[in-house]
User: What shape does this take?
Amino acid sequence: MDMTPQRWMNTCTYLDDVFGRADEHLETLMERAIAEGIPDIAVSSSVGRFLNLLAIMSGARTIVEVGTLAGYSGIWLARALPDNGRFITIEPNELHANFAQRMFDEAKVADRAEIRRSTGLAELPKLVEELGPNSVDVVFLDAIKTEYPDYMPHARTLLRPGGLLIADNVLGAGWWIDMPEGENPSRDAADRFNRMVVDDPAFDTACAPIREGVLVARKR
Assistant: This one.
């Protein structure tokens, strides 16, 4: 049976209903964010649960996220950390960063969550210098898709052996995967990034086809 857009939408709805159950704060977060002018492009609840589980299973104590948006994925990730854990998220948009900070406060994860008001390309090299190589347990990419290949070298350096590189939208947004090469720069960058990680001997890599595709790579 072919996977149509409607069938895929029904599948994602089922995944969210069964596997993405969240508390009231997370359930209403994006509704409030949209009311303040933040785009409705956060990860789904099933992806949020997946991120949380991956971070817990990795034993994460330090997590770096590129692309805060409203703080939705950040709360899922920060909740996976121990009390003395550290979550650093990068967001250049002041509206998004200010809203996310309020959400972190309300979710009671602000003690471990820090927003760097910068771009991924500017901040990741600084984090390499600040934290050092092999210092981070999880790096989660969910920002500008055309920049994913440029994030990769810094994420690779930051991650410890056994650490996880996770990236959202690696199968696209709006059925990129069906587009021919050269038609959409974001689609081409995601494809280039996927192949870059798969071909890197430092990583064992797979993709979970949840929502718009979540790449998970473990550094050897």
